[in-house]
Amino acid sequence: MVKPFNPTYSFSKTLVVAAMTMIFISLSSTSFRSVYAQDVPPAGTLSVISHVINNNGGTKQASDFSNCIDSSGEGSTSMQCSSGQDQGISESSFDPGPYKVIQDPSNSVDEYTVSYSPDCSGTLNAGERKICTITYDDVAPPSPSS
Questions:
Q1: Is the torsion defined by CA of 63, 66, 71, 77 positive or negative?
Q2: Which of 50, 67, 107, 133 could form a disulfide with 117 if both were Cys (CB 3.0 to 4.6 A apart)?
Q3: Average pLDDT, rounded, for the chain
């Protein structure tokens, strides 16, 4: 026994399925975008410049020093270290939050004093760019005893 073809039923069933599929896809992509935009803030960027002053006989260059960015927070540890750059091309991007730039403890700075600009520590906000300047100044040799 062959059932008679009912064009109204077939056509309307197809439209309902297609409409439901489009609504589902639309809702899924909208939810994904709003969750992604709210939950994942853009990283911030920190440039580190190593400035070396050799006015007391020192001979080191920026690349002779190593700097570390500590962006650890709330139970996580994150330390990024790299050779010094005097042109500010050493950039690091990381999640918003507190940070501190330090001289790499494993790289000796004997015969140099180290000073940090204000942006070498603080809080980096989402999408923010900061520049940290570390100055290495050679120490004058001790004067001979008379």
A1: positive
A2: 133
A3: 78
